[in-house]
Amino acid sequence: MLENGIYFTILGLVVLDDIRFPDQRPLNNILGSSGVYARLFLPPPQTESVGWMLHIEHDFLESTQRQLERWSVSLYTDKEADNLSTRGLLEYGDTTFAPKKFRYTTPVLTVQERSLANTELLKSKAYHYLETPQTIATRVSDLHSLLQKVIPALPEKPLVIWEPATLSCKPDNLQACLDAVAFVDVFSPNHLELLSLFGEPASSTTIDKEKIKSLVTIFIDRGIGRDGTGVAIIRAGEHGCCILRIPNINPVWLPTFYNNSSSSSEKMLGQNSMFADPTGARNAFLGPYAVGYIKTNSAYFALEQVGVPELSTVEGKEEELWNGNSVLSRFREYVHSLESLEVTTIPEGTWQ
């Protein structure tokens, strides 16, 4: 029995990506998920507070599963032997990571809510979904029905974070999307997906913050969440993120760590020499966000390499290192750098 329960459970897809770059060797079987990156902010003895249900097939690499098991998260496996694990092909047009194409190369395997029965995952404080606007309402309703059946005296409903599936972000689905946000607490497309929903043109190098504000305000006015006071978070890559909720009229724009770090050695200022692959950024963002609510901008750990970050420790010290860096040290540095932006920062002692 977990003392504090599960903080975050991923109910989105587990995808093994093949990545193609121009004039470089392809990379295969690259794993990414927001459940993985939530683990960054939950060192021992809180590691089991990250919940993850893997829906995989016989071809899922044992080495990848062993790596996840080493992280000591609450890992459950729903394994079948008839088909292939969910796989995708991501192709970049150049070295800027901007022009890209993605498609699934196998049928998509989803985690159904019934798989959570008889697991600690039913006690999770937050759930993350990657769904279309046509399916998210049913998924959330199924979750609440299961919770009421198994835990009738549930003190409060969990936080539901919805990331709309990229391929569903098109004008034909705008109305369905506006209707669906009432079923979730956090609505989080990236800025390109938001623009695509409204049929607006997008640039791969610049961003119109006023346009983003005007579009996301439409969702805020419609009402996110059961009581209409939910949060919209627009992830905008190297431009940072936009956070908007009622009763705040003006959005809060938070910069990325590398563009706002107080450490001169880490001020990237538009350079991407430390970034190997940006595909994990949304996963790295939403996982830690769920753990600490607005404790975000941990995406830099995912961007420094392809795939999930490497865990290590220093002999004689308890603190974990990811890609050789301390998560908590970077987080404190980031919060310190926000003081000049008049942004309400994280309460003292939140990350100890």
Count of discrete alpha- or pi-helical segments spanning 4 or more residues = 10
Low-confidence stretches: 260-283, 294-308, 344-352
As a percent range, the share of strand residues is 15-25%
Q: What is the distance, rounded to the nearest whole angstrom, between the alpha carbons of the first and last residues?
A: 23 Å
Query: What is the 3D form?
Result: globular
What is the chains' assembly state?
single chain
Number of strands: 15
Q: What structural category arises from helix and sheet content?
A: alpha/beta
Topology:
Blueprint: E1 8-10, E2 15-20, E3 27-32, H1 34-38, E4 50-56, H2 62-70, E5 74-79, E6 87-92, E7 100-104, E8 126-131, H3 136-150, E9 159-164, H4 174-180, E10 186-187, H5 191-197, H6 209-222, E11 231-235, E12 241-245, E13 252-254, H7 257-260, H8 281-292, H9 300-303, E14 311-313, E15 320-322, H10 327-337
Parallel strand pairs: 1-4, 1-8, 2-6, 4-5, 8-9, 9-10, 10-11
Antiparallel strand pairs: 2-3, 6-7, 11-12, 12-13, 14-15
